[in-house]
Specification:
Length: 244
C-alpha cells in the first residue's frame, strides 16, 4: 500500500467519524435510524415485521385537557410556547360538528405515514422512515430547506429558529433543522410507550403494533370504527382516530 492509499483511508475514517457526531450528548442519529439500542440491555434493530401506530379515541379526549402536549414538551425538551417560531410536536385541535353540535378535541402530530410525502420531497434523504414505520429527521443531513414542511398535509413539522440549550440527551435537536413527533422513538426502543400515551389519564391514546393481529391496538381497530385523517391522499397514516 502506497502513501496515497494510506492518506485516502485516513481521510475517509476521519470523514465518517465527523458524520457521526452527536447533536445532543449521548445520541447519534445513525443509531436512531437503525433502531440500535442506546443501553447495554437495549432492544435489537428496528424490525420491518412491526409497524408502530396509535389509535386515538376522540370521545375520551377532553376539551381543554393538554396532558399529552405537556408530556411531549417535557419528554423532548420543548419550550411549550405556541409562537410561530417555537417547535410544537403535538397540538390539540378543537372542532365542532355543525350538524350535531358536538364538540371534538383531538391531538394532531406527525401521522407516521406508510408513504410519507416529507420523505419523497427531501433532497438530502434527511427525512426517512424506519423499518418499523416511524418517520424521523436526521439532523446531520437536514439543510433546513423546509420542503418537507410544505409537503406535510398535517402541518406537523416545525423549524428550529434559535440556538438550543440544555437539550435532552436522548432527543437530538439542532438550530436550522426541521423536527416533528418521533413517537418518542428513544422510549419505544426501550420497550416503553410514547410520553403522550402514558400521560393520558383518560386512556384516549392507545399505542401498539399495527402489524400484530393479537396486539391490543389491532384488536381495538377491528372492533370499533376508526378513520385516517386525509385518507383520500392514500398515505396510510399510522395514527388512527376513533369517533371522528
Amino acid at each position: 500500500m502506497n502513501d496515497i492509499d494510506i492518506q485516502r483511508r485516513s481521510f475517509l475514517k476521519t470523514s465518517l467519524g465527523a458524520a457521526a457526531v452527536a447533536i445532543a450528548p449521548g445520541m447519534l442519529l445513525i443509531d436512531v435510524a437503525h433502531g440500535k439500542p442506546q443501553t447495554v440491555n437495549g432492544p435489537k434493530s428496528a424490525n420491518s415485521k412491526v409497524r408502530w401506530g396509535m389509535l386515538i379515541n376522540t370521545t375520551q379526549c377532553k376539551s381543554g385537557c393538554n396532558d399529552c402536549v405537556t408530556a411531549c414538551n417535557r419528554e423532548n425538551g420543548l419550550s411549550g410556547d405556541t409562537k410561530p417560531t417555537d417547535s410544537q410536536w403535538i397540538r390539540k385541535i378543537e372542532l365542532k360538528d355543525d350538524s350535531s353540535g358536538r364538540d371534538l378535541s383531538l391531538p394532531m402530530m406527525c401521522q407516521h405515514c406508510e408513504y410519507p410525502p416529507c420523505v419523497d420531497v427531501c433532497p438530502t434523504t434527511a427525512s426517512f422512515k424506519r423499518a418499523d414505520g416511524i418517520v424521523l429527521v436526521d439532523k446531520h443531513r437536514c439543510i433546513g430547506c423546509r420542503y418537507c414542511m410544505m409537503a406535510c398535509p398535517y402541518k406537523a413539522r416545525s423549524f428550529v429558529h434559535e440556538p438550543l440549550h440544555d437539550q435532552k440527551p436522548d432527543v437530538p435537536r439542532g438550530k436550522g433543522t426541521v423536527e416533528a413527533c418521533t413517537l418518542c422513538v428513544h422510549r419505544v426502543d426501550q420497550g416503553l410507550k410514547p410520553a403522550c400515551s402514558e400521560a393520558c389519564l383518560n386512556k384516549a391514546i392507545l399505542f401498539g403494533d399495527l402489524n400484530d393481529p393479537e396486539s391490543e391496538i389491532s384488536r381495538k381497530i377491528r372492533s370499533v370504527a376508526s378513520v385516517q385523517v386525509r385518507a383520500d391522499l392514500r398515505l396510510n397514516p399510522g395514527i388512527r382516530y376513533q369517533g371522528l
